[in-house]
Amino acid sequence: MQGLRKAYGAHVAVADASFEVHEGEIFGLVGPNGAGKTTTLECIEGVRQADGGSVAVLDLDPARDVYALQPRIGVQLQQAHLQKRITVREAAHLWAALYARPAADADHLLTQLGLAEKRDAWFMTLSGGQQQRLFIALALVNDPEVVFFDELTTGLDPQARRTIWDLVRGVRARGKTVFLTTHLMEEAERLCDRVAVMDRGRVVDVDTPARLVARHCPDRTVVLATPDAAARALFEGIPGVTRVDGREGRYTIDGRREDLTTAVIQCVAAHGLHVTDFQTVSPTLEDVFLALTGHSIRD
Amino acid sequence: MRGLWQLTWLELKIFLREPMGALGTVMMPALAFFGASLAGNSIAPARFGSSEFARVGLPVLAATLMAISAVLSLVTIIAVYREGGILKRLRATPLRPVTIVTAHVLVKLLLTAVTLVVLAVLGRRAATPPPGASLVSFAVALLFSTAAILSLGFLLASVVRTARFAQPFGALVLYPMLALSGVFVPVDSLPRALQAVAQVLPLTHAVALLQGAWTGVAWSAQLVHVGALVVFAAASAVVASRVFRWE
Fold first, then answer.
1. Which residues of B touch A45 (CB under 8 A)?
2. What does the pLDDT read at residue B9?
3. What residue segments make up the domains of chain B, in order of their start?
4. CB contact (8 A) between residue B6 and residue A67
5. What mean pLDDT do residues A214-241 have?
6. Among A271, A231, A268, A265, CA closest to A251
7. A128, A142, A11: which is closest to A79 by C-alpha?
8. DSSP A151
């Protein structure tokens, strides 16, 4: 995808978004609500027409070849629902009937997603997590090559969220490419192989979570406790340490080197310091977002 | 049209799971007709002209109201599906708007047929078709008219944004048509300008077709109405699938 652009009237939802998704990976589009993630996703799925830029999915143009694309992709949409009184099994079988090449067995799919017991329940009686699992099943029913998930775990409790993460990893394990959007940085960090960070309609950087952290947040922090009065001066002497903050025997050591932890441990060992507590604080994608955009994702 | 039969069957089942909806759609027109025909019979001898209405007008009016209620119900269901994000989810599948709406049209036609049977049983004595006409021919005319007017419903359903607005909007478009359709006043007796308007309204041709079927007019003499309804249905369906809103 290159230079995607989409405006609704005067409101520019996507100003400039470019990235490439590799086969067989879980790719995450992350950013706060209103960043343009869903609009970008819907342009890729062929649900929406972009105003500018070029998109290719499986070598097809989603705007022009949407009917050729649809059988090859699976989609879960944000804020979508089904008929209140449709049963889980009816939905799965209807979806299977819509595609020329359905997956092996819709009932088996429901069992894999833990919906076997709910297969005769009406959609309206399902919990949020169960509804999302049904939508995952529907997205997989046509045995797609690429699966799109839009804010898959929003509104779910942590337990249900973890279950969904495992299911998404299971989708990747079947050799499918997964493209998802999320405003949860923790979700992106734990689930995605690579992420594109999006803010105010622009994709600001794309890489693996670890490389994004290394690139934009090179600072490392070690927090340790020691009663030794000489400690502060020793820590300040470590090469690359930028700041030592400490009172009452508890020190926060900031440094601009990836092996700060090793350096601090060597220092402690060399001087025989008595250490009663030791923690490392690693920057997360939230810190990356702050560094890239100048504002917190929660603003 | 892949998935049409599965979707139609499913939508019928889903509809019947809502007991009030099913009961209201099938039983209300039947009960209204039954009540009205009893009243019509008792006042018929006393007033000039009312017996003619009871003989031809009442069955045709009942049939037309059935068609309209089917259309209103179609518009509302599609609007509810739009508002609830159901259409949005269906959009990302190979389903086309015309398939989705056709499934609902088939469900409505089936329910109209069921209502018709109930009506025929209940109203056997109150309104018997005159010699030369048959209930079968009237039923065919009704299903045909309903299908044609449902395509107008498809058009309304394509553009109505909210479910709350769907019912009044549909009624606003459909009920005024009744006044010009020839159910109450023959179209010939309207002012010339209104006659011209009446001629382009689908309901006018539906009513004429129903009246003809009820009074035993041969189908060969009704071709103009059949043709008008077909043209109208095709035109609405084409426009509707172009302006169809998914959300």
1. 92
2. 93
3. 4-243
4. no
5. 90
6. A231
7. A128
8. S
For residue B219, give the amino acid letter: W
Question: pTM of the entire structure?
Answer: 0.80
- At B26-38, the pLDDT tens digits run 666 667 666 766 6
Is B10 within 8 Å of A94 when comparing Cβ atoms?
yes
Per-residue pLDDT tens over the stretch A64-110 = 888 889 889 999 988 788 988 999 999 999 988 888 776 667 888 89
3-class DSSP assignment, residue A76: strand
The 3-state DSSP class for residue B121 equals helix
Q: Is B39 on the interface with A (CB under 8 A)?
A: no
How far is Cα A175 from Cα A144, in angstroms, rounded to an integer? 10
What average pLDDT does range A156-169 have in this prediction?
A: 88
Backbone angles phi, psi at A2, to 5 degrees: -130, 120
CA–CA dist B170, B168 (Å, integer)? 5
Tell me the per-residue pLDDT of A241-251, one tens digit each, with 9 for 90 and over: 999 998 778 99
Which three-class secondary structure state does DSSP give residue A5? Answer: strand
List all residues 6 or more positions away from A140 whose beta carbon is below 8 Å from its beta carbon.
Answer: A74, A103, A109, A147, A171
Across the interface, do A82 and B86 touch by the CB < 8 Å criterion? Answer: yes
User: Chain B window 60-99: which residues touch A at a Cβ cutoff of 8 Å?
Assistant: 81, 84-86, 88-89, 91-95
CA A10/CA A6 separation, integer angstroms: 10
Q: Does B1 touch chain A (CB under 8 A)?
A: no
Q: Which domains does chain A have, with CATH numbers?
A: 2-214 (3.40.50.300), 218-282 (3.30.70.980)
Query: Which residues touch A83 (CB under 8 Å, ≥6 apart)?
Result: A123, B11, B14, B81, B86
Extract the tokens encoding B37: 């025909």
pLDDT in the model for residue A17: 87
Locus of tokens 């426009």: B239
* CA-based nearest residue to A138, from A224, A226, A74: A74
Closest CA to A207 of A219, A197, A217, A222: A197
Rounded distance between C-alpha atoms, residue B130 and residue A45, angstroms:
59
Residue showing tokens 């995607």? A4
